Amino acid sequence: MRIVRPARVLPRRTGPSRWQHACRGALALLAALLSALAAPAMAADATATLPPAKRAAVHAALAAGLRTQTITLRELGAYRPIELRGVDRSAYLPLTVRFDESVVSARLHLNFTFSPSLLPELSQLKVMIDDEPLASVHVSKERLGTPQHVDIDLDPRYFVEFAKLHFEFIGHYTTDCEYPFHTSLWASVSNESTLELVTRRLEQRNDLAMMPAPFFDVRDNRRLELPFVFARQPSLASLRTAGVLASWFGAQSSYRGAHFPALFDALPARHAVLLATNDERPARPALPLVQVPTLAVMTHPDDPAVKLLLVLGRDAEQLRTAAEALVLGQAALSGERVEVRSVRLPQAAVAYRAPNMVKTGERVRIGELVEHASDLQVSGQVLDAIRVNLRLPADIFTWEARGMPVDLHFRYTPPRENGQANLVVRINEEFVQSFALRGAGQVGTSEHLDLPFLEDTGTLVTQGLTVPAFQLGANNQLQFVFDIPPQDEGRCRTTLGGAQAAIDPDSTLDLTHIEHYAAMPNLAFFANSGFPFTKYADLGQTVVIVPDAPKPGEVETALTVLGQFGAATGMAATRFELLDASHAQQADDRDLLVIASGVAAPLLEAWKDTLPARIDAGQRASSTLGKIADAGAEWFSGALPRMVPHDGWAEISAKGPLAAILGFESPLQSGRSVIVLNATDEATLPRTAAALIDPSRVRDLRGDLALLRDDAVQSFRVGDTYYVGHLSWWRWIWFQLHSHPLLLVLLGLLLGVFLALVVFGAMRRMAARRLAAGS
Fold first, then answer.
1. 346: helix, coil or strand?
2. What is the CATH number for 12?
3. Could you give the residue ranges of the DSSP H alpha helices within 468-585?
């Protein structure tokens, strides 16, 4: 049995029972059917005499509240095609529905392939939800071995909280005794198969106790889309408060990604966050004046199923207090409205201590890297890989490093014979090491056996291994694959007892020797983990610079990037500073994130000698571009990237949208970094943030200049590099010398001459002593 699940396991919440959910689903379905049957007749009678325009408006109103969405199995967690082989014939996918929606209808568009060796009359593919059979796909003799497609209607009553879509393969290749692990027993389900859902939004009460729902629902595996609503021209203080909230929602969304559109004096037709003070508020909805920091939930004035999260204050300081109370969990959220009296910020974050990142400089238990101990256990006929996510700081120094030692403890059901089973350790799907698993006969009766307190069976083994440093990046995944073959006792005598295996949570990763030193700028670091800004989880060393009068597209870009920072660190950014371009000189000794678009801003104009490129509406300029030859080399801090000197400057006049992400050393302080998100116009600028939440484009962001045209990303190395971080003195000297071979040769010669002079002097003194003694 195999369970396919997304990168993060969804926590189970308490709530109504499955029976209650089924009843609610049945009632919703009955109501929908009655409405569907009655609506056409009533609509036909009521609209028969209406003009065409009004008739269309009536029909649109009847369909209000319904939403059609198409979800691929890949989006449900099947990152590869689902292979069902032999007795490993089941696979599960999480099938979640938002708590404020009910499913009206569901259809599965299934793409699959059966083995050409199957017997059609005895083989089938069962489709179930929570082990409740809903459909059976039979084998067609004419289509065996070729891709097939079928549409399956699923009963919406079974779409309950944290349900699972279940595929079970039943296959036979002979009517005689068959080997259940025969290679001809297989079926493949494409992860590009789609699930089409029609859902109806349900009205909910206004209650802050449900936060972060409905604005973010943990049951929803899709990317978070959450608009922010401001006054006609929001102040910097309001925008900074929105940035704090965006980073918190980004941390909640985690692997899903988050996009935060910005609206000035307008309401969207979906859940949204609205920020207002007594002097700065949108025209709609009409809000009462407040005297204390306030959090509230209200119903959208145009749609009773949509909610607005209100963050209110008498002034900018109170607005900030209300937002910090929400993201820090210091407000007892309950009811429709909460007033905040005071908030105390935690101590400033220490470098490399983000909740989502592994702590360097110490030994880390593998049990700390998973949500539940059960994530480290597998069982079944064919054992799935045990996967452990390992997020490291981007600037770890891996040149000439010995790797990451792992003290590994594991248990397994011993095979009957030696040499038939093994454990393979991989990182990021790359082989690291394998261990042969001892057979049952190798476990002597004189061995000491400790009975653990937790459920455990099998043999306990301790092994040591080292993960090579060159295989470590910012986002890693350790995979432990136990290959324990079944016991074949002859024809028709195969034993089907399942195997079990587990990684002990007390296994450790040794990160005590990790040092932080990296070549910059490196857009790969920024795109994958938000470095250097996320070095401090609260962004205490970050300044965000926006235009003097930011437009909605520029605010949207800033909020979305801050949401990505929150997803990388796992906490809200409460200590960054927001400045407009005219006050950028106040940033001093901090890292800068600059948002700019349209006509060249005075700030970028002042930095034009430092910029690797400058993009204006109708004109683009850049120094000589050198395409990155080996993108992977930049992940390893010790490898010096190819340099392209500033031997020319090109100016190109052209029309059409273009966006870019640029990185360079801060003109205000050496050793500090600047990342600029730039575009020809405000409407194009959000493409830069969209690239950061699209995994297919993140892997193409490298070097110090990335140009974005539609869905294409081109990366270049244009400017000079500089280094950030610290090394032990002896490693720093050796690292500096290795990149200058001529200097290394010269130092070797000088050292040789020095040693020769020392030896020559010592020999002359010895000769002088002999001569003095002889005379």
1. coil
2. 2.60.120.260
3. 523-529, 552-569
The owner of tokens 């204006």 is 616
Residue of 448, 456, 434, 466 whose CA lies nearest to 502: 456
DSSP 88: B
Question: What's the pLDDT tens digit per position in 604-627?
Answer: 777 877 777 766 655 555 554 444
Kindly give the interhelix angle for 18-47 and 52-62, rounded to the nearest 10 degrees: 170
Neighbours of 512 (CB within 10 A): 11
Report yes or no on 357 lying in a domain.
Answer: no
First-to-last C-alpha distance (Å) of the chain: 96
- For residues 586 and 266, is the Cβ–Cβ distance under 8 A? no
Quick one: 734 exposed, middle or buried, by C-beta within 10 A (0-12, 13-18, 19+)? Answer: middle
- List residues bridging with 391 in a β-sheet: 475
Distances (CA, A) of 384 to 170, 263, 377, 499: 19, 46, 9, 11
* The residue type at 567: A
By three-state DSSP, how is residue 296 classified? strand
Q: How far apart are CA 583 and CA 603, in angstroms?
A: 9
Residue 630 falls within a domain, yes or no? Answer: yes
| Pair type for strands 421-427 and 294-300 | unpaired
What are the start-end ranges of the H helices in 607-714?
Answer: 686-692, 695-698
Q: Where are the beta strands (DSSP E) in 702-769?
A: 705-709, 712-717, 722-726
**Distance from C-alpha of 57 to C-alpha of 47, rounded to nearest angstrom:** 10
Whole-number Å distance between alpha carbons of 661 and 697? 13
Q: Where are the alpha helices (DSSP H) in 371-424?
A: none
Give dist(CA 55, CA 57) in Å, integer.
5
Inside any domain, residue 734: no
Judge if the upstream peptide bond of residue 285 is cis by omega within 30 degrees of 0.
Answer: yes
Phi-psi category of residue 631: left, alpha or beta, with phi > 0 → left and psi -120 to 50 → alpha: alpha
What are the backbone dihedrals phi and psi of residue 365, each rounded to the nearest 5 degrees, phi first?
-75, 135
347 domain residue, yes or no: no
Residue with tokens 């001093």: 588
- Best mean pLDDT range from 62-71, 228-237, 411-420, 766-775: 228-237
Q: Which domain holds residue 257?
A: 208-339
Per the listing, tokens 């199923």 go with: 305
3-state helix, strand, coil in the chain (%, to 5): 25, 30, 45
Domain count, the chain: 5
Instruction: Note the residue count of the chain.
Output: 775
Both tokens of 487, joined, read 């016991």
Q: Residue 417 gets which letter from DSSP?
A: S
Residue 239 shares a structural domain with residue 163: no
Provide DSSP, 452-464: -SS---SEEEEEE
Other C-beta atoms lying within 10 Å of the C-beta of residue 695: 11
Residue located via tokens 């259940």: 180
Q: What is the pTM for the complete model shown?
A: 0.81
101 close to 217: Cβ distance less than 8 angstroms = no
309 shares a domain with 213: yes
pLDDT, tens digit (0-9, with 9 covering 90-100), for 421-442: 889 998 888 888 888 887 765 5
